Structures are given as C-alpha cells and as structure tokens.
Structure prediction request, 486 residues.
Amino acid sequence: MTYVIHGETGDWEVVIGLEVHAQVISEAKLFSGAATAFGAAPNSQVSLVDAAMPGMLPVLNGVCVEQAVRTGLGLNADINMTSVFERKNYFYADLPAGYQISQYQHPIVGEGTIVLDLADGSTREVGIERLHLEQDAGKSLHDQDPRRTFVDLNRAGVALMEIVSKPDIRSPEEAGAYLRKLRSILRYLGTCDGNMEQGSLRCDVNVSVRPRGENELRTRTEIKNVNSVRFVMQAIEWEAERQVSAYEAGESVVQETRLYDPATGETRPMRAKEFAHDYRYFPDPDLLPLRLTPEEVDRIRADLPELPDHKRDRFMTQYGLSAADAGVLVAEREMAAYFETVATGRDAKTAANWLTTNLFALLNKKGLGITQSPVSADALGKLIDLIADGTISGRIAKDVFEIMAESGSDAETIVTERNLKQISDSGAIEAAIAAIVADNPQQVDQFKAGNEKVIGWFVGRIMKATQGKANPQKVNELLRQRLSDA
Ligand code: MN
Prediction:
C-alpha cells in the first residue's frame, strides 16, 4: 500500500511523524490536588499552584507517574529509571506561571513501537521516539465577550503524556491507523480515555515530502492540534500536495507551524516554527529528579491487561478468526469481551459474523457504542442458538435481531409470539412446492431442458409462499426430487 503523489516532475513520497498529547486519567492534576473533571464551571478546579500564586510549590502526583509508566510498557518502550522535569518558558495568558513544567532531555519513557493494522490485513511497525509527562495549559475563551478574552484555568496543570512517533509513517491511511491503534492501547490500559472531541487526545502532525528514492529528510511543517482521525488524514493529504506543488514551482518549504481548517480542508501558516532553544529549558528547581525502582516498574508490568495485539493473535488461534475479523473485534476492549461472551460454547466464526455484520450495522445506524448496545451479548448468543438448533432460519434470524433491538424482547419470545419457527416438516414444504410447480409448467420445462438457474427462481417463490420460514436446505432437496419426478 504505497502512497505516492504523482507530480509534474515525478513521484513524491510523504514522510509523517505524529506528536500526540494524551490527557492522563487521574482524579487530580500533575502537580496539585485540584480536580480534572470535564465540563466543570470555569475556574472551579484551580488550586493556588495551578494559578501560579507566588511561593506555591508543585507536588508530583504519583498516579500520573504510574500511568505514564503503564503506557510506556504498553508501547513496548524503555522505561527510564531517572527522568527530569524542566521548565519550558513562554508567555501566554492561559499560562500564569510563564512556563510549562515538562520533560525535555530526560523523558520518563524512551523508544518503543506500535504495530499498525492496515486495511488490507497487513501490519507495519512504527517507532515511538519518546513519551514525556507535562502540564496542560489553561484555555482562552475568545467567544464570551465581544471585546474581552476570558481565561479558564480548569485545564491548567492537568497531566498530559506527549507521545512522539518516529517519522516512520508514509501515508494518510497509516497516520489514521496509528492514531486508532494508539487510542485503542491507551483505552485498554486505562491511561487516557481517548476522547478526541473533548480534547483528551490531540494530535500535532509533522509532514514533509521528498522525491521517491531520496534518502534525506526535507523541511517539515507542523500542523497543530488536529482533533479527529479524519481531519488528520485530510490535513496530511492537503499539506503534502501543497509542498509538492511548492517544490515543483521552484519554491522552498519553510519550517513553520500551520493550522488545519476543517471547513476548507486546507492548512494555513500560524507562526514561524520555534526551536527548543527558544524556550530556555532548564531543570525545575522546585522538583527533584524523578527516580523509579525496578520493583515499582515490575509491579505495574504484572498488572497490565491483555493488549490488542496479543488478543488479536489469541482470537486467531483460539477461535480460528481471520486477521481482519480479529483486528476489528479487539479494537475496543468492551467489543472483544462482548464477542467472547457470544462465542463461548458456540461456533466462533458464526459469532464473529454476527458481530461484524448485523451488530456493527445496528450500532452504526443508531450511533451507539458497544456498551450501549440494545442487544446484549447473552441475548445475541441465544438468538444464534435458535439458528443452530434449526428453530429459525438464518434469514428470519436477521428480522428477529431487528425486533430484539427495537423491543428489548428476547429471541425465543419473539419467535413464539410471531410464529416464526422454521418449517422443516416435509409435508408442509412439499405442499408449497407442489402448488408452485403446478402453476409454472414453463419453468419446469426449462429445468428439464438443462437450465439449472431456474432452481433458484423456484426456491425464491417457495420461500415467499412460506413467509421465509421454510428450511432452505429441505426446500432445495424436495424441489429437486419433485422436478426430476415431474
Ligand atoms: Mn507538548
């Protein structure tokens, strides 16, 4: 799945690196005890530390440290036993201290990897450069008053993990797969809720292009704070095309920060790229270096859940699923659990089919997540049992499933009340066949002349006559007998 931009002068390759800011799941902020709940009244969750009152001292929140380590382990990354918090100095109205406490030279997590699951079923590894802990800033509100800007400091000091990939990504699709996989891992770990609309996962996209076959990296631009997977993919596409056109027109690409506008699908310049030295990083004198012990890391490691890659492999061996089916079923932990409940004691491939077709379609149509599914795993399992024991046909089961979703009733009640039981009784089916064969002598002649397709036509008629309740296998069998006798 090579992604190439065909320019006037030849083919171009896109090089992408992603920096993701993931909000740590923690009841308190990184260096204060203030709460972190989303949607609280402005400035209701601000401690004196977050407001940077003189003389206030930061106190490191151990939960946030554990969450960062847990995430590092989930990304198969090196955990650094010593890391250092530094001040990143810049002025902004929503940053009362005049600096952000971040990690620069010594992050808590080093190199790791993420395995991308691509649409064609193949996988590809992308390197993680680092993960560091830092504070979020507050929020400037420009739309509350025509002339003034207000500041909400609720978010100021909330713990973020900045997760930086290597420039290993080569297409918008891979960038999308990276974000989906990262979000999936974070949610499995319980370290970030992954909610992009609420800003708990924000993505900065670094993009450069180069003629296909060139080894050097060219100048990159950074697109700031893109807040959906789709927008990330669109922004990359547009920005890569823009850079190719610039090079081909003999212009150069300037290192700068750009903004993506979802309304136009374009990126536009925001500011000249700042460099690390602009921030005058230095170790925060209020905080000691952060030291972990091997025992602490081992304890967190022992507590890790089964992660998506491992679960996918297990689903393939234990349940005989294809890589593609296993991949979609493990993307969400709750979906994987739902599947296992349905599959236990039943044919796993049938269970997987029901989830990836009927259940997914239902949830999509209603805009619901798996945890809000109107049909529970147990209820779906019982429906599948009715197909397996011949009580209903697979065709009727689809209708029953829809009724279950609307009424909340169980499969057995619906089948009984609506008289949907499959007709397997030969007498009843033979009667239906006899009537239709007698009414259609022309089609009988066609069959006798060797036209096999006409069988399908007859089956359709008979199923219709029995309101879809006839056992299709029986129909086929008895119909052939009847036609050859005719
Ligand atoms: Mn950052």
About this structure: The first helix runs from residue 62 to 74.
